[in-house]
TrEMBL record:
<dbReference type="InterPro" id="IPR025110">
    <property type="entry name" value="AMP-bd_C"/>
</dbReference>
<dbReference type="GO" id="GO:0031956">
    <property type="term" value="F:medium-chain fatty acid-CoA ligase activity"/>
</dbReference>
<dbReference type="GO" id="GO:0005829">
    <property type="term" value="C:cytosol"/>
</dbReference>
<dbReference type="InterPro" id="IPR045851">
    <property type="entry name" value="AMP-bd_C_sf"/>
</dbReference>
<keyword id="KW-0963">Cytoplasm</keyword>
<dbReference type="InterPro" id="IPR020845">
    <property type="entry name" value="AMP-binding_CS"/>
</dbReference>
<dbReference type="Pfam" id="PF13193">
    <property type="entry name" value="AMP-binding_C"/>
</dbReference>
<feature type="domain" description="AMP-dependent synthetase/ligase">
    <location>
        <begin position="20"/>
        <end position="404"/>
    </location>
</feature>
<comment type="similarity">
    <text>Belongs to the ATP-dependent AMP-binding enzyme family.</text>
</comment>
<dbReference type="Pfam" id="PF00501">
    <property type="entry name" value="AMP-binding"/>
</dbReference>
<protein>
    <recommendedName>
        <fullName>4-coumarate--CoA ligase</fullName>
    </recommendedName>
</protein>
<dbReference type="InterPro" id="IPR000873">
    <property type="entry name" value="AMP-dep_synth/lig_dom"/>
</dbReference>
<keyword id="KW-0547">Nucleotide-binding</keyword>
<keyword id="KW-0436">Ligase</keyword>
<feature type="domain" description="AMP-binding enzyme C-terminal">
    <location>
        <begin position="454"/>
        <end position="531"/>
    </location>
</feature>
<dbReference type="GO" id="GO:0005524">
    <property type="term" value="F:ATP binding"/>
</dbReference>
<keyword id="KW-0067">ATP-binding</keyword>
Length: 552
């Protein structure tokens, strides 16, 4: 068989962009995207994406250029997941919760050439660009102004090149979209957090996104033509790749600009929603509204990831008729690659035991080649006893190409044939993974990862602060929130209050990164070498109990 080799007939590049063309053929007259009074079919969505891709190319955007999007979950946001890479450009979705300073850094780091901006975020993008150093090229801007409350298309655009619908109108629906020359061509760029000192831009290939999109459908058991409600921000790891997955199965995408539990329940009933995703905070919100006290008319599948949902929240959510699945993934894997594969016999267990089992991250998905927990020094697997700690490592086709402009960072986590996640976990005797800690003290708040180091750096700029350390405090609403332990300089008079420290941080950080609790102490616990013992602080924060729910 040595004479049998790959040919162009059997080795065309894998890309999820072809899902859209197939959806238009198979599900052409079926609903694709619904948003308020706006509704499109798959034929219309396909044509609109081709038109926008054509217009992007006509603006001089070349293959490999970065095109950014700053938008909530609206039709344009969904379409740009296809239109941008169809033009040959690399899609960069930006977290809408970031502040202008951080957005400015990310735009410069990515060298973005074009930015699509929702009308509610105009001031944010303009302020971000105003922070560019002199003589630094800035991207051109396109305004997404499709809502009833948005400015009319005839209104002055000022700093914007045109509107999104202008690009739809002027584009060519016969445009031959740019197929990748090979499946390793970069397709998406996503930043892992709001870190500004050293942005970590995760680059994924067409091949990687194709694999994770198909894998996610298989693992969750998504049938053909589901009704998917977008409660998960699409900017979050490209909606865990479900924009592409929904095209693959001809699903109906129900878009919402903002999350409101009352509205979510009304949409579930109106559109007979079958599937939705979100951080554990979404579960908590759904179980804390009056309308949520009545059981759903039919089961709704909800997939959650991040900090494990607390057992009481999980129990309340399932008692309402939601079927909860739990998984684990990173921006670096483009979606969930570990899931708590459920066994039917577990349904006979008491509720508390079911919640404990479901809170585990689980086993590798079928699309992931291998998963293990290893000693980071020796690289050897730890014992599968549920107590031996090690670092979670992964191997598979959906693992990122690497970090943009960061060879050392890429090499540090991609070694010996593994991707080292930086997460600490244990392996149970039954082969199920359970995450125990985040090695870099990352705090997962409302599904967003935030760096404790960055919050600490802001605290240290306060002239009254002597030392500071930030850890996670349990929160029934957000999962976790930042808790700052602070020692003050002895000579400072008067001493700042907790409220004043929080307000100081609020002026310098995005809202979700601001500490919700500040604990003053004479001295932070340290090792003999002077290193702050964060594990001690985490126990102290845990001892404070769950912080009072508050919206960020």
């Amino acid at each position: 068989m040595e004479d049998l080799k790959p040919t162009s007939a059997n080795s065309s590049p894998l890309t999820p962009l072809g899902f859209l063309e197939r959806a238009a053929t198979v599900y052409g007259d079926c609903p694709s995207v619904i948003y308020g009074d706006t509704a499109y079919t798959w034929t219309q969505t396909h044509r609109r994406c081709l038109r926008v891709a054509s217009s992007i190319s006509s603006l001089g955007i070349k293959t490999g250029n970065v095109v950014s999007v700053l938008s909530p979950n609206i039709p344009a946001m969904y379409e740009l997941h296809f239109a941008v890479p169809m033009s040959g450009a690399i899609l960069n979705n930006i977290n809408t919760r970031l502040d202008s300073r951080t957005v400015s850094v990310l735009l410069r780091h990515s060298e973005s050439k074009l930015v699509f901006v929702d009308y509610e975020l105009r001031s944010l993008i303009l302020e971000a660009i105003s922070l560019f150093p002199p003589n630094t090229p800035s991207p051109r801007l396109v305004l997404i102004a499709g809502d009833s409350g948005a400015p009319s298309r005839a209104a002055p655009l000022d700093d914007f090149l045109c509107t999104y619908e202008d690009l739809v109108d002027r584009g060519d629906e016969g445009f031959e979209w740019v197929s990748p020359s090979n499946e390793w061509v970069p397709m998406t760029l996503n930043y892992t957090s709001g870190t500004t000192s050293s942005p970590k831009g995760v680059v994924h290939s067409h091949r990687g996104v194709f694999i994770i999109a198909v894998d996610s459908l298989i693992d969750w058991g998504v049938p053909k033509q589901p009704v998917y409600l977008w409660t998960l921000p699409m900017f979050h790891a490209n909606g865990w790749s479900y924009p592409y997955g929904m095209a693959a199965v001809g699903g109906t995408n129900i878009c919402v600009r903002k999350f409101d539990a009352q509205i979510i329940y009304s949409m579930i009933k109106r559109y007979r929603v079958t599937h939705m995703c979100g951080a554990p905070v979404v579960l908590n919100m759904l179980t804390n509204v009056p309308s949520g006290t009545e059981k759903l008319e039919y089961p709704v599948h909800i997939l959650t990831a991040g900090a494990p949902p607390p057992a009481p929240v999980l129990f309340r959510t399932e008692s309402l008729g939601f079927v909860v699945s739990h998984g684990y993934g990173l921006t670096e894997t483009a979606g969930l690659v570990v899931s708590c594969a459920w066994k039917r016999k577990w349904n006979l267990l008491p509720a508390t035991e079911r919640a404990r089992l479901k809170s585990r991250q689980g086993v590798r998905t079928v699309g992931l080649t291998r998963m293990d927990v290893v000693n980071p020094d020796s690289g050897l697997s730890v014992k599968r006893d549920g107590t031996s700690l090690g670092e979670v490592v992964l191997r598979g086709g959906c693992v990122m190409l690497g970090y943009l402009k960061d060879q050392s960072g890429t090499a540090k986590c991609m070694k010996d044939g593994w991707f080292y996640t930086g997460d600490v976990g244990v392996m149970h005797p039954d082969g199920y993974l359970e995450i125990k800690d985040r090695s870099k003290d990352v705090i997962i708040s409302g599904g967003e990862n935030l760096s404790s180091v960055e919050v600490e750096s802001v605290l240290y700029t306060n002239p009254a602060v002597n030392e500071a350390a930030v850890v996670a405090r349990p929160d029934e609403f957000w999962g976790e929130t930042p808790c700052a332990f602070v020692s003050l300089k002895s000579e400072v008079r008067p001493k700042p209050t907790e409220k004043e420290i929080i307000e100081y941080c609020r002026k310098k950080l995005p809202k979700y990164m601001v500490p919700k609790t500040v604990v003053f102490t004479d001295e932070l616990p340290k090792t003999s070498t002077g290193k702050i013992q964060k594990f001690v602080l985490r126990q102290m924060a845990k001892g404070l109990g769950s912080s009072r729910p508050s919206r960020m």
